[in-house]
Design brief:
This protein has 421 residues and is α+β, with helices and mostly antiparallel strands. It folds into 3 domains: 157 residues; 73 residues, Helix Hairpins; 148 residues, 2-Layer Sandwich (Heat Shock Protein 90). Helix content is 51%, strand content 17%. A 5-stranded mixed β-sheet has the order 6-8-9-11-10, covered by helices on one side. The protein has a 4-stranded antiparallel β-sheet with strand order 1-4-3-2, with helices on one face. Strands 5-7 form a two-stranded antiparallel ribbon. The longest helix is centred in the middle third of the chain and has 74 residues. The mean pLDDT is 87. Bound molecules: adenosine-5'-triphosphate and magnesium ion (MG). The site of adenosine-5'-triphosphate has 23 residues, from helix 6 and helix 8. Its EC number is 2.7.13.3.
């Protein structure tokens, strides 16, 4: 079922990416093509406009000398008047029919294989007398002028450009097809990873919750079988149930923190903190606890300037690390807390002389619900969520956390948090 959902999701992603690329290419191709075509016509049309203006104001019908355009004068009946100047073009030109509808317009005309761009206007100049001063007959006076230009090469250019665009569109389409397929697979990876993580999280959470719930249920059912017993007589069952409830409580609040962290609901509230005072406040209650377990606490806080951190979260982070250092050390052990500023980073180090963490598990301990076998799940009673939360707090501060071995045995947790200058 999951595989089918994933496959469907990937195909959907692929299609979205493929068509988005295609749409972008189509729009880009169309813009380039229209621009190219417009540009071609614009330069021809501006030449034609210039030539028609000159021709319509000219005082003779020879027309201005030009190799690109042909100028044809018509009388009021539509008869060509300057055929003697048209040379070998005369026969082609005689086939052209002019139409008053086209007056003052620029348009294309097909003559055989040739495409002509035409501009048709009225003649402004009044050619009433010829060069010799003789009056010109009405039928010999130009009334309309048509300026032509052969645009076949330009149109062939446009056509070739279109073919080139189409060919590149097909090639790009194929490339995009392959790229979209690869990208969609690549994009699915984090989705699949998150999905798998979520599944594992729910599985482990259900498993973790089931154990205390079963214990509480058994104890309560046990109580129901002895209705006449006093609370004192059943104290151990009640104490155990309460301790399991406490565990459930801490488990759910940890899970809630992680779930919220995952969905980016929690944002950091950084404030300048007097770190020495802050650390002393955290360590004070632990000093007694550590002493009561016949362990030693050594502290060295060398941070004089205020640091910009989310005090609540960093407090939580130090408690998690300190709690582990106490939990995973035997009596007589030493727990050392150092902190200083190093290269614009706030460095917090919590070292212990406890059971240590094998190299193999140095990465795994940050995974949710992960607990090392030797830490003795039953005895120390953790959820395996502490370090996951610690890792999240550190990464939310854009910092780093790493575990190294304490030379004399045990582990060193080093946290680096970037703080403002
Ligand atoms: P909790 O969620 O209550 O903190 P936990 O302590 O088991 O439970 P983590 O703090 O995430 O969970 O630690 C994960 C595991 O890493 C521990 O179970 C333990 O095996 C190992 N570990 C953590 N800190 C230390 C340490 N200082 N020394 C040795 N092992 C450690
Ligand atoms: Mg812990």
């Amino acid at each position: 079922m999951d595989k089918i959902v994933n496959r469907k999701q990937q195909i959907k992603l692929f299609l979205i990416e493929f068509f988005s690329f295609l749409i972008v290419f189509t729009i880009l191709g169309t813009i380039i093509f229209v621009f190219y075509q417009r540009n071609t016509y614009n330069s021809v049309d501006s030449t034609l406009t210039r030539r028609t203006q000159m021709a319509s104001n000219s005082t003779n019908m020879m027309g201005p000398p030009d190799f690109q355009t042909i100028t044809i004068y018509y009388n009021f009946k539509g008869k060509i008047l300057n055929s003697q100047y048209l040379n070998n073009m005369a026969s082609t030109v005689s086939k052209i029919k002019v139409n008053k509808d086209k007056l003052n317009k620029i348009y294309n005309l097909e003559v055989g294989e040739t495409t002509l761009r035409c501009a048709y206007v009225k003649v402004h100049s009044q050619m009433t007398v010829d060069r010799n001063g003789e009056p010109i007959k009405r039928s010999q006076r130009p009334k309309y002028v048509l300026v032509l230009r052969n645009v076949t090469p330009e149109l062939q250019g446009v056509e070739r450009f279109k073919e080139l665009l189409l060919a590149s569109f097909i090639v790009f389409g194929l490339i995009v097809f392959i790229i979209s397929y690869i990208i969609s697979g690549y994009n699915m990876k984090p989705v699949l990873k998150a999905w798998k993580q979520q599944e594992e999280f729910v599985d482990s959470a259900a498993h973790e919750i089931r154990t205390p719930l079963t214990i509480i249920q058994n104890k309560l059912e046990g109580l129901m079988t002895k209705p006449n017993d006093t609370i004192k007589e059943q104290a151990s069952a009640i104490i155990m149930s309460l301790s399991e409830i406490r565990r459930l409580n801490s488990l759910t609040s940890d899970m809630l923190t992680l779930a919220r962290a995952n969905s980016n609901v929690i944002t950091l509230e950084k404030t300048p903190v007097n770190f020495t005072e802050f650390m002393n406040q955290i360590l004070e209650p632990y000093a007694d606890l550590i002493e009561s377990q016949n362990k030693k606490l050594v502290t060295s806080i060398n941070v004089t300037k205020p640091v910009l951190i989310d005090a609540k979260r960093v407090h939580q982070l130090i408690v998690i690390l300190l709690d582990n250092a106490i939990k995973y050390t035997p009596t007589g052990a030493t727990i050392t807390v150092n902190s200083s500023i190093e290269n614009r980073n706030l460095k917090i180090q919590i070292c212990d002389t406890g059971i240590g963490i094998s190299d193999k598990n140095k990465k795994s301990v940050f995974k949710r619900f992960y607990r090392e076998e030797k830490s003795g799940n039953k005895k120390t009673g953790g959820n395996g969520l502490g370090l996951s939360i610690a890792e999240w707090i550190v990464s939310a501060h854009k910092g780093h956390i790493k575990i190294t071995d304490n030379p004399g045995g045990g582990s060193i947790f080093t946290v680096l948090l970037p703080v403002a200058k």
